[in-house]
Amino acid sequence: MSSENDEIAIEVEGAGKTYRMYAHPSDRLKQAFFRRRRYYTEFEALEKVDFRLRRGEAMGIVGVNGAGKSTLLQLIAGTVEPSRGSVRTRGRVAALLELGSGFNPEFTGRENIYLNAATLGLSKREIDERVDAIIEFAGVGPHIDQPVKTYSSGMYVRLAFSIATSVDPDVLIVDEALSVGDGAFRRRSFDRIMQIKEGGTTILFCSHALYQVEVFCDRALWLHRGRVQKIGKVPDVLRPYQEFLDAYVNDMNAEPFPSSGGLRPEDRLPDDSAGGLPPAVAAPRGEARIQSVQVRLDGQQGTELHGRSLVSRLEVDIDFVSDPSLPAPTAALVLSSESGKILGSCLSLTQGVVVERGPDGAGVIRVAVDRIPLNKGRYRVGVYLFCERGIHGYGMADPVAHISLHHGGPEQGAWLLNAAWGSGNSDFLATGQ
To answer: Is it true that domain 265-406 has CATH number 3.40.50.300?
Structure first.
């Protein structure tokens, strides 16, 4: 029987990397002779990273440029030593970092195959058995015995990719490698990586294409300015990361959002599913007030609800009291991200709903959303009570509940488009059939 440690392919404990930055080249020489004085400043490229990856698992590494992704991959590949902490890998490691960086430009393609494959741990016999397949996959057959300095950039990276993915690695490190080559080669490289993953190889995958992370990976790690912001299941990491990217596009000094938000527990409305309705109150004078809110998802009532994207039905009942001498209030339903970014809303006013109430000014406003078009993730449900013109706000309860939606596809973005696909019928788009 194999022990638990035997199942760990990558183990990173407190790993960090610090670089010395010198203002002038001469400062390096001064530092060598005058060690008691510091002629450099320190740059923390990576700070205290901890995780374990089991055999056969795939982890996506995400973050903006300069986040420390490449530094982390280099530590695991063994091309850079950590300044502190430890990095351990088990088995043969192949890294697709800077494709072709190990090629000798004066050597032929064939000679570089033997050189690089040997560096990755293959014997000459093993290389002999694979060389034809490597050449065929790279598509450089007519040029294989020419110096690689005569290759186009596409031929260069295709050959490097073919070598690195042909050595049966136990650990494969991929840094934006699926963007190499033309469309046909990108498809083949995609299929090759999928085959390697299905074969039980542990994969570290770094990409700015989040849908690729969604397709390839079981877990994800988000880095920002050298620090781990979140690690866990792919949807749980990509959702807040996408929200951060939305802010980062407009402000490059934006910082990651806190993981929680909204009202404090003492500010929220009571959970009616647990404690029943709050006691009735007299109609307020000159205003309206939310009395209670019930939220149901697929018939289940509560404040933490689970459902399915494009399937589940959300129902919200807003019990209110109002001054009977005033026109009946209007209401709004708001769905937001966990950081508070509004993703969608609907108002009773714009739909022309006439709100009914009793002589005492009390009433119930109901709203339902069928086949919720939000992508997988956890969302806030909020309700707002406005005056009859939708201008003055009487009150709000946001969040009054959270819904967690599940979806099996790799689609990105907050919304799932209710699109109709077709093929082979020129009238399809015009008729919608």
So the answer is: no
284: tokens are 């307020």
Quickly tell me which residue has 């430890």 as its tokens: 86
Answer whether 398's CB lies under 8 Å from 332's CB.
no
Say which residues have a Cβ less than 8 Å from residue 139's Cβ, sequence separation at least 6.
155, 158, 185
Q: Which amino acid is at 235?
A: P
CATH of 5-250, one of 3.40.50.1370, 3.40.30.10, 3.40.50.300, 2.170.190.11: 3.40.50.300
Q: Is the dihedral of CA 248, 251, 252, 257 positive or negative?
A: negative
Distance between CA atoms of residues 82 and 40, nearest Å? 19
pLDDT tens for residues 219-271? 999 999 899 999 999 988 988 888 788 777 665 566 665 543 333 333 333 33
Rounded to an integer, the average pLDDT of 342-356 is: 89
State the average pLDDT over residues 142-159: 89
Residues of the chain with CATH 3.40.50.300: 5-250
pTM of the model: 0.64
